[in-house]
Design brief:
The protein has one domain. The termini are close together. By secondary structure, it is mainly α. It contains 23 helices and no strands. It is 79% helix and 0% strand. α8 packs across α17.
C-alpha cells in the first residue's frame, strides 16, 4: 500500500475532479459524435436530428417567423432598381430564345426593327411582372411553398448543419457542464476521502467513482435548464442568458437556414414549384401585350409557358444584386430575436432542450460507468 499520508488523501478529491471532468467531456462528445452509428452508438443530435429539427421547424414557423410579414417588408421598387440591368438582359435572352425556338418562321419574317420592338415591349413590362409576381406570392404563399417543410429540409440538409447549430448555440452551456464536473467531482471526492479513511473498503473507490459520474452528469445537465426563474439569485444558465441565446440563434438561422437564396430556391424548386410556374406564366400573360405577334398564327399561351420555364432557372442569378437589400429589408434575424425574447420559458427552452433530452439517461449511465472504471484504477493505485 502507498500509505496513509496526507498526500494520498489529498489526491482522492483531485482524482474525483478528474473523473467529473472526463465524464462530462465524454457526455458532451457523445451528444455530437459519431455522426454515423459506430460500435452501437451514434451521436445524440445526429441520431435524432429529424425529431430535433422537427421541433425547431415547428417553433420557427408557428412562433418566430411570419412569412407574410417578412414579404410585406419588401419594397418592389427597390428590387426593380437593384436588378434592372440583369433583368433586362435576362428578359432579352429569354424572349428571343422562346420566340425563335417555338415560332422560328414568324420570328425570322420580322424585320430586325420589329424584333427589337417586340423585345423592348417585353422589357418594358419587366418591372410590372416583378411587382405582380411579388403581389401574387404574398397572396398565395401557402400554395407556393410549405414554409415548415422548407425549414425542416434546410435543418436536415446535411449531417453537420444541425450539429453545428446546436453546438454553437449551447457552447457556453457545454463549457459550464465540463467545468462543473471539476468542482462537483472535487466535492464528492472529499467525501470519498473521508469514507476511505474511515473504512478502507475496496468497493468505496469504484462506487464513489460511479456516483461522481452519475450525479455530476445529471446535476450538470439539470443546472443548464433549472431553475427557469431566479431563486435566491440562482437561475439556469440557458435561461439567464436568454438575450445572448436569442441573438445567436437568430443569426445562425438567418445566416445558414432562412437565407434569401435558400428561400428563393424553395419557392422555385420546392415540392410546390408547379404552382410557382403557373403564377409566373399567368403574370407574364397579364403583363405583356402582343400586338406585334397577333395575327401571325403564334400560340401566345405556349410562349408564355415556355418563357416561364426558361425564367425559373435564371431568376436566382438575375436577382442576385438584390440579395443584400432583401436580407436587410426582410430582417429575418431581427424578427426571430424579438419574438424569441417574448416566448414563455418552456417554449424558449425547446430551442435547445430536445438535443439534451434525447438519450439523456444513457449519457448519465455512461458517465457512471466511466467513473466506476476510473475509481477502480484509483483503488489499484492506492493498493499498489
Amino acid at each position: 500500500m502507498l500509505g496513509d499520508g496526507w498526500l494520498l488523501y489529498a489526491a482522492i478529491p483531485v482524482i474525483g475532479a478528474i473523473i467529473g471532468y472526463v465524464t462530462k467531456r465524454a457526455a458532451i462528445e457523445m451528444m455530437f459524435r459519431p455522426a454515423r452509428r459506430t460500435l452501437g452508438w451514434q451521436g445524440v443530435v445526429p441520431k435524432h436530428r429529424g425529431r430535433i429539427a422537427g421541433i425547431a421547424a415547428e417553433l420557427l414557423t408557428t412562433r418566430l417567423i411570419d412569412p407574410r410579414e417578412v414579404l410585406d417588408r419588401i419594397d418592389v421598387d427597390r428590387i426593380n432598381t437593384a436588378i434592372e440591368q440583369p433583368l433586362l438582359n435576362t428578359v432579352d435572352a429569354i424572349a428571343r430564345d422562346v420566340i425563335a425556338e417555338h415560332h422560328p418562321n414568324v420570328w425570322e419574317a420580322l424585320p430586325p426593327l420589329a424584333q427589337d420592338m417586340v423585345i423592348k415591349q417585353v422589357q418594358a413590362a419587366a418591372p410590372q411582372i416583378v411587382t405582380q409576381l411579388l403581389s401574387e406570392l404574398r397572396e398565395n404563399l401557402d400554395a407556393v411553398v410549405d414554409v415548415k417543410q422548407f425549414a425542416l429540409a434546410q435543418l436536415t440538409k446535411d449531417d453537420e448543419r444541425l450539429v453545428r447549430i446546436v453546438r454553437e448555440l449551447a457552447r457556453p452551456e457545454l463549457t459550464f457542464i465540463a467545468r462543473s464536473g471539476i468542482w462537483l467531482g472535487f466535492v464528492i471526492g472529499v467525501a470519498q476521502a473521508v469514507v476511505w479513511a474511515l473504512t478502507k473498503q475496496p468497493l468505496i473507490m469504484p462506487i464513489f467513482g460511479a456516483a461522481i459520474g452519475l450525479v455530476t452528469d445529471w446535476l450538470a445537465i439539470t443546472l443548464v435548464f433549472r431553475p427557469r426563474e431566479p431563486i435566491w439569485r440562482v437561475q439556469a444558465s440557458f435561461h439567464r442568458r436568454r438575450a445572448d441565446v436569442a441573438h445567436r440563434y437568430a443569426r445562425l438561422i438567418a445566416d445558414d437556414v432562412l437565407t434569401v437564396p435558400n428561400m428563393l430556391s424553395a419557392v422555385l424548386n420546392g415540392p410546390r414549384a408547379d404552382r410557382m410556374l403557373t403564377l409566373i406564366q399567368d403574370v407574364v400573360a397579364d403583363a405583356v401585350d402582343r400586338p406585334l405577334l397577333t395575327g401571325r398564327n403564334v400560340a401566345v399561351g405556349q410562349l408564355h409557358r415556355a418563357a416561364a420555364l426558361k425564367a425559373i432557372p435564371v431568376i436566382p442569378e438575375a436577382t442576385r444584386n438584390a440579395t443584400g437589400y432583401l436580407t436587410t429589408a426582410m430582417d429575418v434575424a431581427g424578427m426571430i430575436e424579438r419574438r424569441m425574447l417574448a416566448l414563455p420559458a418552456d417554449e424558449y427552452e425547446s430551442v435547445l432542450r430536445p438535443a439534451f433530452k434525447q438519450e439523456e439517461p444513457k449519457l448519465i449511465v455512461v458517465g457512471g460507468v466511466i467513473g466506476a472504471i476510473i475509481g477502480e484504477l484509483q483503488l489499484l493505485l492506492l493498493l499498489g
